[in-house]
Amino acid sequence: MSKALYANLDGVAYGRPQQHPNDLLTRVGPGTPCGEYMRRFWQPVLASRNVTTRPREIRILGEDLLVFRDGSGRPGLLYPRCMHRGTTLLYGHVEPDGIRCCYHGWKFAVDGTCIDQPCEPDGGVNKAGARQPWYPVEERYGLVWAYMGPPDRRPVLPRWDVLENLTDEEYYQVFDNSWGAHRDPDGPEVVPYSWLHMNDNIMDPFHVQVLHSTFSVTQFVREFEVMPTCAFEYIANGVIYKAYRKLDDGREVDRISTWLAPNIMSVPSTMLAAGPSTGMGFVVPVDDTHSRIVGVARMPKGQSRQPYRVNGKTWSQMSLEERQDVPNDYEAQSGQGPISLHSEEHLATSDRGIAMQRRALEQNIRRVMEGGDPDGVVLDRSRQLVHVPSGNFFRQKERTPEPA
Amino acid sequence: MSKALYANLDGVAYGRPQQHPNDLLTRVGPGTPCGEYMRRFWQPVLASRNVTTRPREIRILGEDLLVFRDGSGRPGLLYPRCMHRGTTLLYGHVEPDGIRCCYHGWKFAVDGTCIDQPCEPDGGVNKAGARQPWYPVEERYGLVWAYMGPPDRRPVLPRWDVLENLTDEEYYQVFDNSWGAHRDPDGPEVVPYSWLHMNDNIMDPFHVQVLHSTFSVTQFVREFEVMPTCAFEYIANGVIYKAYRKLDDGREVDRISTWLAPNIMSVPSTMLAAGPSTGMGFVVPVDDTHSRIVGVARMPKGQSRQPYRVNGKTWSQMSLEERQDVPNDYEAQSGQGPISLHSEEHLATSDRGIAMQRRALEQNIRRVMEGGDPDGVVLDRSRQLVHVPSGNFFRQKERTPEPA
Amino acid sequence: MSKALYANLDGVAYGRPQQHPNDLLTRVGPGTPCGEYMRRFWQPVLASRNVTTRPREIRILGEDLLVFRDGSGRPGLLYPRCMHRGTTLLYGHVEPDGIRCCYHGWKFAVDGTCIDQPCEPDGGVNKAGARQPWYPVEERYGLVWAYMGPPDRRPVLPRWDVLENLTDEEYYQVFDNSWGAHRDPDGPEVVPYSWLHMNDNIMDPFHVQVLHSTFSVTQFVREFEVMPTCAFEYIANGVIYKAYRKLDDGREVDRISTWLAPNIMSVPSTMLAAGPSTGMGFVVPVDDTHSRIVGVARMPKGQSRQPYRVNGKTWSQMSLEERQDVPNDYEAQSGQGPISLHSEEHLATSDRGIAMQRRALEQNIRRVMEGGDPDGVVLDRSRQLVHVPSGNFFRQKERTPEPA
Question: ipTM of this predicted complex?
Fold first, then answer.
């Protein structure tokens, strides 16, 4: 036997059992426990500016859908295949009151009502009984939102306090192209991994110190090189962390980040700007192995978030080797695979926030399976406004009184 | 609850059962009911001009095959993997009497007979017992045809009257590249959807008025903007429709189109040229989710069908957005998906021809399952000639007698 | 019935049963009979020169692995996903004593030991219990080798006599890019077919006369146009053939080629250089349908094997039609499909060597299934040196005594 190189062969991979994901948290199609849970919440579809009279295919929670705006400005979300003979409405044309299929001209309103069947006698005497499958949508904060759950459990679309009361000097900057993963306008609109990877990332203050700060280049600010002292807390419908840092210049800062069930986040300024968070993010499951990261932030007019560059290159301009040199959220999360193999994870004390999130998710998924309503759905309009505690809060120094 | 936008949530897609195709009509592999039915008919393989001494891979009815022409001009259709050690004959070389495998030199005639085994003693003393799996072929109308069914049920290859008695001033223009779907020499040779989509299209006179005439641009002639009055009839082995139109200029025309089981069509001139049809078409299943549309038409020498263009662009030159603007048969049929989800269809009165076709197909498929012969196979050479009633027939106006 | 073209329809492909591979010999994943057998032998991973501080993904025997060299020069082969939260170590950075994950900074030595957990209190007080799954490796002959089998059965890495005692004028030329299939530096590093295709090729002296010599162009030397007389023999752990040729110029040569279980070959000079073989080759299964051909040969310094060209073009520069004209090993072997359909093979007398190889493989696979050790694993270091009989051996002519 050749024994020179290794003290022993403990822990070799031979005979290792097959690893697997946590299906309860990662399967999102119709009828799955997590899919049914997710469907109890309004989900962002696309930025309002991208919902136009040009129909677009979109997949959400494993369902293929068609999104468009009718000629009167109403957004619509329909099943893509025409109920008549199954041709996609992607080739349909929008009219003031709906969308017309290219093949035989059936026309549908944004609520699926069939309003014309031109090849049938008298335009279709039975068309009142025909309905293209559809989902209700709303618009707010520059986004189109959909409710894909059981109709009798439809909640109100929440308002988050950090986005309310926009001033005349502000606007909503909206990203529907997974900007949060790559910060690149030419990056992939949909990222090729489970929604849970980005969701895990939210309550993980420690990767900020490693991945974003000390591993390669400074991806946010130098201040994050200080390893934080972190506390995690449940709030009414989520988890927050408070990451305390004493900076080299003596300043002390509490950075509070928020996760709201099921897939909502509010990360405070990554430039460490002082004050409450100004934005919200959403990790929308496209299907089990893809997700779309949507974000909205209030911005001073005339300003906008700029692409992230290393050596002048955006994410999509980098080679694999360059991304190996300076990996970022996209690499860390896609590197977990299409769905992470949770059976091989070893969560440690620094993963406490993630463990708390997952516990909350599993409890709520089970509650929905048993017929209950999950935490965080707002059925009562008087409770529509949600408080988001996120922000970078610098502690006041005790000042020595100046000499008189 | 947010109720402003919709009167109610009737018909939302939530909870919709999983949709599915009609497997009986769309599965075409060996041993499937429709596959066995289809195998009872001669199927076109390729244009004769494309069957050469350069071997070519081709898939028909879910079977991977190799087509070539030996050095003496005989077309051959063999299993592609050499019976000896399984290497594809795609890398074989054609000789006057067969094709020789590149690996160990076994040579096969067009009927699969093994005629050389050069690495075996005396060229293979047992080679008479070896036979490469093969199918019989014939050539007619500028096409190579194959019979892939049970040998004891082999029918004669039909003759269709509209293609017979070619004059010295005519030739057969043959398309084996799904021209019927995109009318583009650079379009895909095989279209990525079930044969049933194009087959459904044949007995559908109404889409001519919508898709091809009033939806975007005039894809054939303006006369088709008139909604026709249609009658459908069973004929001996198929279905025909008679679409009557009274044109704006007072002319009246009966347009008769023919579908013959299982996948044969004769569409009259789409330029509304008067008189009987001059061509036949065939929707050959490549596999469950792909098909090849083959056509042959008698043409005056010196003339040929020209590519279809919109704004100067052929199908393959258009962007998705341009094809959304002016969808055509390819978009309508590919838009039904790889296989349409028949459980979500809602056939209406205008779909009567399709319902009749499908009923005939289902009856004949069941008959073959039970051991019978399907309608339309011609076992008796005296009945080889098939009458095809298709054409554009203008009605004679009653003329006022001219004054004497 | 149309009977003109064929005497009868014997042997048509209709009704042919579904063909299938020999799973016992071709499934190589963890837990499969052949996979477990293969794991009992050291397998080459990559050329040493390609194992660097830039981590690389590699798949062997159906397992996804990460290969790298730490900053102290030690090669490592680890499971790619970090045991902490599952991110691939492809984005890890190499340090003198290991590789550090990009996400939270866990660091692992080449034997999987966890040596840092920077986000945990005191760098991870429990890290001694953490171990990234790993495999032992060794370096020899310019290659990195891995042992992926049960730790208690680890054999010594053999030495092959034809590679030993390198002189000062020689070096090891190493190919880890499937050169043996395409002889092209730009050819595919991994070939898209089962390891058994190339393995079958080794004990097949007859394809040299057809494929490489008389089918199209001379791919090695003209002397191989002579059909050899072949004898096959079992040796202690493999099979050899002796191919005897009497050449046109009167010379007589015995060409001996060697296959050693499970996937090891020594092909003598294909330029028919006289004397023992100077190299060894290995067909490493990547997964069931892909393999990597690795080779090492002793070469005089200043010399190296040159790419093979036809009409000035290397393999990757040829079109399909050009490769049809002059097929070579890549075409013959890829032409057997991802895995050959062994149920449709017809082995003949010229395939005797292949039959002997497969018999030996099946016997040894079954022995491993029953708990035994396969032939050819060297557990005793005193038996580490393996004799390889390959070579081109020209017979001495009886010389007429010269006149005095």
Answer: 0.95
